[in-house]
Amino acid sequence: MNQKIDFTITKLGKNTVKSPIPYSVEKDKGGARFVSDDEFILPSNTLKEQNTDSLLEKAGPREMIYFNPNHVHAGIVTCGGLCPGLNDVIRAVVRTLWYRYGVQRITGVRMGYKGFLPEYNLPVKELNPYIVDHIHNMGGSILGSSRGGSDTVRIVDAMERMNLNILFTIGGDGTQRGALAITKEIKKRNLNIAVIGVPKTIDNDLSFIHKSFGFDTAVERAVEAVNTAHTEAKSAIDGVGLVKLMGRESGFIAAHTSLATSEVNFCLIPEAEFSLEGENGLLKKLEERLDARHHAVIVVAEGAGQNLLEASGETDESGNKRLADIGLFLKEKITAHFKKIGRESSLKYIDPGYMIRASAANPVDSLYCARLGANAVHAAMSGRTGMLISQWNNAFVHVPIDMAVSKKNCVDPEGSLWRDVIESTRQPARMHD
Amino acid sequence: MNQKIDFTITKLGKNTVKSPIPYSVEKDKGGARFVSDDEFILPSNTLKEQNTDSLLEKAGPREMIYFNPNHVHAGIVTCGGLCPGLNDVIRAVVRTLWYRYGVQRITGVRMGYKGFLPEYNLPVKELNPYIVDHIHNMGGSILGSSRGGSDTVRIVDAMERMNLNILFTIGGDGTQRGALAITKEIKKRNLNIAVIGVPKTIDNDLSFIHKSFGFDTAVERAVEAVNTAHTEAKSAIDGVGLVKLMGRESGFIAAHTSLATSEVNFCLIPEAEFSLEGENGLLKKLEERLDARHHAVIVVAEGAGQNLLEASGETDESGNKRLADIGLFLKEKITAHFKKIGRESSLKYIDPGYMIRASAANPVDSLYCARLGANAVHAAMSGRTGMLISQWNNAFVHVPIDMAVSKKNCVDPEGSLWRDVIESTRQPARMHD
Amino acid sequence: MNQKIDFTITKLGKNTVKSPIPYSVEKDKGGARFVSDDEFILPSNTLKEQNTDSLLEKAGPREMIYFNPNHVHAGIVTCGGLCPGLNDVIRAVVRTLWYRYGVQRITGVRMGYKGFLPEYNLPVKELNPYIVDHIHNMGGSILGSSRGGSDTVRIVDAMERMNLNILFTIGGDGTQRGALAITKEIKKRNLNIAVIGVPKTIDNDLSFIHKSFGFDTAVERAVEAVNTAHTEAKSAIDGVGLVKLMGRESGFIAAHTSLATSEVNFCLIPEAEFSLEGENGLLKKLEERLDARHHAVIVVAEGAGQNLLEASGETDESGNKRLADIGLFLKEKITAHFKKIGRESSLKYIDPGYMIRASAANPVDSLYCARLGANAVHAAMSGRTGMLISQWNNAFVHVPIDMAVSKKNCVDPEGSLWRDVIESTRQPARMHD
Amino acid sequence: MNQKIDFTITKLGKNTVKSPIPYSVEKDKGGARFVSDDEFILPSNTLKEQNTDSLLEKAGPREMIYFNPNHVHAGIVTCGGLCPGLNDVIRAVVRTLWYRYGVQRITGVRMGYKGFLPEYNLPVKELNPYIVDHIHNMGGSILGSSRGGSDTVRIVDAMERMNLNILFTIGGDGTQRGALAITKEIKKRNLNIAVIGVPKTIDNDLSFIHKSFGFDTAVERAVEAVNTAHTEAKSAIDGVGLVKLMGRESGFIAAHTSLATSEVNFCLIPEAEFSLEGENGLLKKLEERLDARHHAVIVVAEGAGQNLLEASGETDESGNKRLADIGLFLKEKITAHFKKIGRESSLKYIDPGYMIRASAANPVDSLYCARLGANAVHAAMSGRTGMLISQWNNAFVHVPIDMAVSKKNCVDPEGSLWRDVIESTRQPARMHD
């Protein structure tokens, strides 16, 4: 934690409206309770990393709110690649607005930020509890999604035309940077519009987000792919199963999947360098594994081993740099190696990306999304803006967008998660010279 | 049915041993019963296609058997690509031999026919009910599998060295042709070895096999892939989901999957020609679909549209001709087309092949495999040889190998299955000029 | 087949309207084809049971139909207990009416036949393809269901008031008898209303219905319950897992589930008598099993062992006689027996009934329902009435209601299914004196 | 946190053996690292509840250990009711002992503490990585389990006879109290035996255990049961689905399940009192719900509403008091109430207990169990005793057994979890007068 930490949350103004939610207001009188503005969470779980000046505000419903529910017109937009749970978050936002606050003007913006831009001519979708009743059983986003379209000025123009006073942005790194720019443009124009983000990052790579929604579901689906690879590997002569998983800069999905199955022999992630050649290199170690057991399973995060590849220099519409395909690269290198040394081997390559990200959320993710969505509404109604809802240190908290996107969350190669992966895979702790 | 039909089953000799199974032998006295050798099944379900001279022998346990169970040493081999249910069939064969007949010498040959060949140096695997107790919950084959290795003379040499008197060959078209050659070589050498096949063809393309084992499971998994494609398509601007499924010469998996989901808009199979260009061509029809609904799902069997591709002329180790990849071909053609006409569209291509074929069997396939395996043992113990176990016209029957491999089983483009697919997809009944 | 067989199908009148479906009409010209009225299916698959005078009419779209689609108002009703696939059938009926025939007046009657009766005051539900788009992913029936309410005269009164000219009745034995009565009342009143049934019987006990829809899904869910019972049994000292499954008069679910898992040691069905006491009785055999393996799994169909119980003499609203609860009876008897002989044992009783019947259909059932529903619409549009859609001898056929309900379909205790169950469970072929 | 907090961990002696695990020992040199004995975790995530004198020791592998791996004979026992993940923990313990420390004498004690008692005559089960290779795919415990048998003196006698120097006790509250008694008896006899517990409590009711293993899987299965109840309720006239879930003193499963589905209208837990009668009582509120929507789903934890029932005063073999059955009680009361007021309603009661607890762990629980088991081995090898492995405040930590069992972990009826449940169910915040 060397970065400058400032968890102060921006508010649109004073909270002068009484919340319509029938909670108890006195502590210790029994029954559910409002959260007060002086409840905070420690950012760290250890003594020495603690900075007690810098605390995270607790999320939840406030007794006094900023917006009069009758005047609220809320918008929801989902951006970037698909992720399990998008529909669950949409559903929770709609239900909490409607049933708890009585807000009845809720508009879904179609296909990401592009939905705000007139040239795409995308009709908005009116939302209410009946429309969203069953959507949590479906993968994807009923609003659709896209990368790009982050044209701040014209988005705020569109928001003004629509008379939105709340915008929920469900998306990753790029989306939330866009939301921050929108917040600043709103401030510049002196508008009273709250912008609340729900962070979506299947890679789990945002800061101060303990576990992003959809992550557990992604691991569940990834485990199925790994089991397939294991089955193929075991059923062939010196069979190798190679599975590419998500993880552009962080190997969380690969690491968790490896731990969950115990069938993985090599887990390759961006945070832990590896070489192909040499005594400690992957090819040599793979040969040793095949000598011993005659089959092997390799899991590789899409951002791993980039040093081995020629960077393309390109970026996608979200501004992410295009990664060269490490999966296909390894497939070719391993196949060529065994051909060269004259060993009959059979490599099966599995890329389950779409089948993972388009899944419906599993129940644990569903409930997580339900709580994220509800807390996002409470934050917006209380006039907070330019912030994300996050679960951190076992509590739902408010995180300023700039703190969340300041640094990537990565697997600590000296930490306990990676250590347990190495215990499970029994791969060398260091796979390069 | 223009082929010459001869369903006569070859037997090794007279059945002089009393079956050790404690069934009732008299009809109408209650309790399970042996099958007698004069029970037959009609090959067709319509009057006009019926040829009453040509009937299929009913499978099942006989009161008098050929082999003395104490002298039996049975071998099992699984060949070709993986398919859900291989372990279930192995398990049923082992359990029926062991528990019903008391046969205790059962040997698994590793990695397909190659396991017979000394140069591969593959140790055999002794099999018994304890070893196979839980294997039906796992995909793949505990014996492993491979293509090729069909070296008849040396396989029979190995069988003689091992003193096998029964061989169960679990595999497809090529495997069963191999089994037929083995049967002939056995006959030439005057050996008393029974060879019984259990037909495995995930494509469902063997004759006189109503539905091959693993087919239902394959459809179930394929449906998951199509749902993913549908989710991706709906969540993008003019999104197209393209799924490649098994089906080299027969489109059964593609057709059944399309019917099971009703999310498929174009189902492309080898049996129904289609063009890309022209008024009735796929590209034009796809544009119309996107105009109307803004998303589309295409399912393509791997053998479809081969006329559109350059044949490579190569074959794989099983002797199947290598097909050019219609999935990647369509992906490129469709993407290029939309680029050319300047339409923003997003195509996601999903190839779930390994994830389908390496699945564990679902319960309905498990029970089917259990019955196939049991009936294979009954056939072998009664001295039958050179034949397959099949379910046909709602009964388990014996089919001579040459009848089963004589002709591919295909989707009838004038029949009710294809008609129902067209009803469900609402694709044109004819998609070429 | 000793019953009098008359498969003649009743038609409302001459077919004078050209079908709007764009199929090819000439054979061998390629492309999907209409079914002609002279296509028939043999009722049996063996030579000796064949009666070639008595053939089943093939289902499917006719070139000439009876109703003018513009004048059609179709009703759909689902009756009796829940069953996987109800929503799939509703969906297929709606889609086929709407997309193939252009029928746009489709009305769902709520909560079974009671939905016709004014005193229940149940509003009907207008149906169209958008409303039914996702319902196949849900269990139950979007129309609701109930037993009883089969008040023929008042139902036909209601149908007249609603101006229905087609009614689809999705339900079991009792429902279809009701449909037959409705057909007769319609005839008496000289109305032109077609009544087409889709047989629903999770027990699989109707005649000339090869496998009822939802059956495979039911077996899949039942297998999960049996696996649970097996796990509990193995994890306890002399543990016994007891699972009660559907099957009032036919043990098909119990038999198929036992075959699918191979974990069942005793499968008890209505068709095979058993005693508790005596040398061959269940209690003695259970003790022997526990001596040998220290755990046991028992599956009992709800209609099994009724001779051991006092009949209550009551009936439910559908007119089915109330069965005494064999599951609880066995639980008590077994527990008491082990207590009496002083043996520590632990019995876990599982009754998964609702969790089975309220499941969504699996993909194979979904596709089956899709085809049943489509064929029901084709039958109705062609003016057929008083009949069911069935799959029999591998073809979709028309079966007169009275033939289907004339006799229960039962497991043949001398046949191959029961024999294979006995092979799998290794229970005695005869479990009474 | 009013209890006296002392997190000091007991150790058998000085750590003088070098760990055989090849980790890096220097920080910031890259690669996985040992945990040092001065790494601690804060017990709370808020400032005011923090007591910085009282910290939890971090779990993980130590560079110096207590036991010489060559001399170790480890025992494993699983006690109490089944829970998803038992086999995963066994597997992780065996693999970590074997592969990381080279311990090859590992003994499974059968059927809980009873397996130590000579009168049960239960043979032990030798464990190694091959035997446990696939067990994580199975529910239950391969060692079996039972309640009771906690005869401290004779257990330690048996441990001495077996020459165990490590015992892993996998079980709940009662089991861990037993483990504490065993630890004390070991100390009294001056033996060098480490006793390490892995806490198993499907109810999630132990202190300083953030989430017990198997909990997520239990919620997943419970959600399936609730979906069934919802389907049944919606498909009937004024249908009510009633589901009883685990939760003797803590309503965590009921609360999480309600949040995960959003189909629950009334969630009843032990921590929140409710009445049946009166204006705010369940019966009145249920009527209002049926008036509005015509179906309702109730989830009840088994320990809820005990004030409404006559206590039986009995206890089970584990010493837990027998609860009267709130599920059956509610079923009868609700049914009687609607009969009394003359309203046609249909209640379906579902008790999925065994189907939940006997499930295999889902992937997320599998990975959690893998890490718990590995950390338990590290703790034992370092000579710690009388403690549990727990995940708390996002870290794996050591918790003295007496702190964990000192107080039940309960749902805080004023906290955010219960608040979010009330938001989701929209049940009254207070359901009694």
From TrEMBL, chains A, B, C, D:
Query: Which keywords annotate this record?
Result: ATP-binding, Cytoplasm, Glycolysis, Kinase, Magnesium, Metal-binding, Nucleotide-binding, Transferase
- Site-annotated residues for Important for substrate specificity: 174
Instruction: Indicate whether RNA-binding appears among the record's keywords.
Output: no
> What GO biological process term is on the record, naming one?
fructose 6-phosphate metabolic process
Q: Which InterPro entries match?
A: ATP_PFK (IPR022953), PFKA (IPR050929), Phosphofructokinase_dom (IPR000023), PKF_sf (IPR035966), PyroP-dep_PFK_TP0108 (IPR012004)
> Residues that bind substrate, according to the entry?
201-203, 246-248, 302, 354-357
What metabolic or biological pathway is this protein involved in?
A: Carbohydrate degradation; glycolysis; D-glyceraldehyde 3-phosphate and glycerone phosphate from D-glucose: step 3/4
Q: Which domain of life is it from?
A: Bacteria
What is the enzyme's main class? transferase
**What's a Gene Ontology MF term here?**
metal ion binding
Cite the binding residues for ATP.
Answer: 81, 147-148, 172-175
- Which Gene Ontology CC terms are recorded? cytoplasm
UniProt name for this protein: ATP-dependent 6-phosphofructokinase
Q: Which residues bind Mg(2+)?
A: 173
Subunit notes for this chain?
Homodimer.
The UniProt similarity line reads: Belongs to the phosphofructokinase type A (PFKA) family. PPi-dependent PFK group II subfamily. Atypical ATP-dependent clade 'X' sub-subfamily.
Mostly located where? cytoplasm
Where in this chain does the record put each Phosphofructokinase domain? 74-379
**What is the organism field in this record?**
Spirochaeta isovalerica
Give the cofactors, semicolon-separated.
Answer: Mg(2+)
Q: Which Gene3D superfamilies match?
A: 3.40.50.450
Give the Enzyme Commission number: 2.7.1.11
Q: Which reaction does this chain catalyze?
A: beta-D-fructose 6-phosphate + ATP = beta-D-fructose 1,6-bisphosphate + ADP + H(+); beta-D-fructose 6-phosphate + diphosphate = beta-D-fructose 1,6-bisphosphate + phosphate + H(+)
What HAMAP family does the record point to? Phosphofructokinase_II_X
Q: Which residues form the active site?
A: 203
